[in-house]
From TrEMBL:
UniProt keyword Transferase present: no
Organism name: Actinomadura vinacea
Xref: SUPFAM superfamilies: Periplasmic binding protein-like I
UniProt xrefs under InterPro entries: Leu-bd, Peripla_BP_I
Native organism taxonomy: Bacteria, Bacillati, Actinomycetota, Actinomycetes, Streptosporangiales
Signal peptide, first to last residue: 1-21
Keywords, in A-Z order: Signal
Pfam family name, one: Peripla_BP_6
The protein's name in its UniProt record: ABC transporter substrate-binding protein
Domain (Leucine-binding protein) ranges: 51-403
CDD domains documented for this protein: PBP1_ABC_ligand_binding-like
């Protein structure tokens, strides 16, 4: 009788263990026991009942190192949630950050390290269009969610062959539409000079702008490209000044954004309306140029600016400021890239909470089934929406103009889905 009871208990334990192991997918179970029922057979690598491990890839060094502030905001958010909210769904979040120096081959190397050695649950944020392009095939092959990548390339939402990768910020084509619409109202006969980064990022925004101005009187007077390895864009700026264009569209990353703004201020006889794309619009980009030299520059945004006084009594801004000081005491809360990081981490939090299964597949499905999700750090009226045919979480932006020592919002939030129709292909 004793032998019979022991045998029954052992069989039950074996059954539970087998069911738990089946959730791992390809033998990659890390101990999660909640992936049961409809979730059986799905991947639980990097997630247990108590922990959740994420990996991010950023240019902490190199020509785009200004973006290294973003993971500071992300980590502060996760540290706050871990300490004061018992993590996400009872799971403490570990966020592992790797540096690719804005070099695609290095990004691939770091993605492999995160997935195969660190055994992360998901790649949360790979920054840059070139780096994400270099890694999304690998993420897809390994069936690892590549969540809310820090790049606005339109392909993250329109491509159907990479269901494991999705963007977050407004895509560059939608951003270009906003600038085109602004010029159609303010300068319907504008002649535009364009500086753009010679890669998928620069070409995507420029291509979107060209398409958006079709059928009107706005023309491209001249365009100049630069490489991320270039020491300076001053030669390109001198060439563009010769075009006598009355609008300058600045499609750059932070280092070159500062250079272009400085060059524009120095050039005599050329005083165009200066539009700088969102990714190079941080005050940390403008400050070295001198605020007096960037007055009335125009850009667009979708999340709250920590130094805009209209948010001083905003509950989320108060929380963000307090927790940045508490959990990232060496990081300045007024830096917009920190607020960006906080906002995207909050977006991940809500997406993970909405997952029907605590698995990689559950996260993949949740990030493509967002229904008007509100994120407190986003501008009022800006929400996240996706479905199986729409992989663009955020497609609303508001224009802003630099005045004094900060950006001032103007106009209304523009939902580019409604204003211009859905973005495809």
């Amino acid at each position: 009788m004793r032998s019979s009871r022991f045998g029954g208990t052992a069989a039950a334990v074996l059954l539970v263990a087998t069911a738990a192991a089946s959730c791992g997918g390809r033998g990659e179970d890390d101990g999660a026991t909640t992936a049961s029922g409809a979730c059986k057979g799905q991947q639980t690598t990097g997630i247990t009942d108590k922990t959740l491990k994420l990996g991010g890839i950023y240019p902490l060094s190199g020509p785009a190192s200004a973006y290294g502030d973003i993971p500071k905001g992300i980590k502060a958010y996760f540290d706050y949630v871990n300490a004061e909210q018992n993590g996400i769904g009872g799971r403490k979040v570990e966020f592992v950050v790797r540096d690719d120096g804005y070099q695609p081959p290095k990004a691939v190397e770091e993605a492999r390290r995160l997935v195969e050695q660190e055994r992360v649950f998901a790649l949360f944020q790979t920054l840059g269009t070139p780096s994400t392009t270099a890694t999304w095939d690998y993420a897809g092959q390994r069936k690892v969610p590549q969540v809310f990548v820090a790049t606005g390339a339109s392909k993250w939402g329109s491509d159907t062959k990479h269901p494991w990768t999705i963007g977050w910020q407004p895509n560059y084509v939608s951003e270009a539409r906003v600038y085109a619409q602004f010029l159609k109202t303010e300068k319907p006969n504008a002649k535009v000079a364009v500086l753009y980064q010679n890669d998928d990022f620069g070409k995507d925004l420029l291509g979107g702008f060209k398409k958006a101005i079709q059928g009107g009187q706005i023309t491209i007077a001249q365009e100049q490209s630069y490489e991320v390895s270039d020491p300076s864009v001053e030669p390109q700026m001198r060439n563009l000044a010769g075009s006598k264009a009355d609008v300058f569209l600045n499609i750059t990353t932070p280092k070159f954004g500062s250079q272009a703004l400085a060059a524009d201020a120095k050039l005599t006889g050329w005083n165009p309306l200066h539009i700088v794309n969102n990714v190079a619009s941080s005050v940390t980009v403008l400050r070295p140029v001198g605020f007096k030299n960037v007055q009335n520059v125009v850009s667009a945004t979708y999340y709250k600016d920590p130094i805009d006084p209209q948010w001083k009594d905003d509950s989320e801004m108060k929380l963000y400021t307090a927790k940045m000081k508490q959990y990232a005491p060496g990081a300045d809360p007024s830096v917009p890239y920190h607020a960006f990081g906080w906002a995207v981490a909050s977006s991940f939090h809500k997406t993970m909470q909405a997952a029907k299964c605590p698995t990689r597949e559950g996260l993949r499905d949740a990030m493509r089934n967002l229904n008007n999700v509100q994120i407190p750090m986003l501008l009022p009226g800006v929400t996240m929406t996706t479905d199986k045919d729409d992989g663009f979480p955020i497609e609303s932006m508001q224009l802003m103009r630099f005045k004094g020592e900060r950006w001032e919002l103007f106009g209304e939030v523009i939902d580019t889905r409604k204003a211009f129709g859905p973005l495809t292909g």
